[in-house]
Amino acid sequence: MATPHLGAEPGDFAPDVLMPGDPRRASRIAETVLDDARLVTDVRGILGYTGTFDGAPVSVLASGMGMPSISIYATELFRFYDVRRIIRIGTAGGMAPHLQVGDVVIANAAHTDSQMTALRIPGIHYSHVPSYALLAGAARAAGVGDPPPTGRRRRARRSKTYVGPVLSSDTFYADREATNAELVAHGTLAVEMEAAALYAVADREGGEALAICTISDLLFADESLPAEERELLFDRSVQLGLAAFASA
Ligand SMILES: O=P(O)(O)O[C@H]1O[C@H](CO)[C@@H](O)[C@H]1O
Ligand SMILES: O=c1cc[nH]c(=O)[nH]1
């Protein structure tokens, strides 16, 4: 039975789902990473595929942009399709000054300016946190906490992976320098638009979730990638997400 927003039948989705915001990124992941991927839903242009990776079933479904959108898809996956784990494969704006475009942030917490989750439990400031097992699996795969490389490898600045809090915002075009400075002073690494709601939905539905975002813009340096390059920013985050699925 399809849901209002997904055309798939029961059993069409794997228990593990990768979830980029962009439907084109979902197609590229299905085409380039999964084996035997088949389209299972295209309602509203939100594309979903199921295939395998290293023999294990894996799905990829776009979330669209923003917390209302990802909340609908995550709820329907957990509630009606027996999905157990969702890893968001996103892009984000770098807030902390040590970040560079192409770096990856694994979100161990998500602050938010949204009312969606503030209203979830009256009187409570809800903590938006990921599945510890998925977080630990992704961080281990990324070598976070390992000793720094020595010798020649040390010289090249490759894409780096960080674990830290993100801001999940309802607004992409926000003029809030003072707020951003305070957030950075409190350890926030990057801004995106879905992780907090995904974490809250996973908690509510008894599932597990994690957000892994690639930096596509720098808020402090006026650097921003064009749309076609954002579409391609997923290699490292998908690799870490799949490793987290396999290890947890
Ligand atoms: O690239 P995705 O996964 O869509 O993520 C980021 O990009 C969109 C804004 O450009 C928002 O959805 C934000 O969270
Ligand atoms: O939400 C987002 C995503 C990418 N870059 C931003 O600045 N914000």
TrEMBL record:
Transmembrane segments: none annotated. Pfam families: PNP_UDP_1 (PF01048). Gene3D superfamilies: Nucleoside phosphorylase domain. It catalyses: uridine + phosphate = alpha-D-ribose 1-phosphate + uracil. It is an enzyme of class 2 (transferase). SUPFAM superfamilies: Purine and uridine phosphorylases (SSF53167). This is Uridine phosphorylase. It comes from Actinotalea lenta.
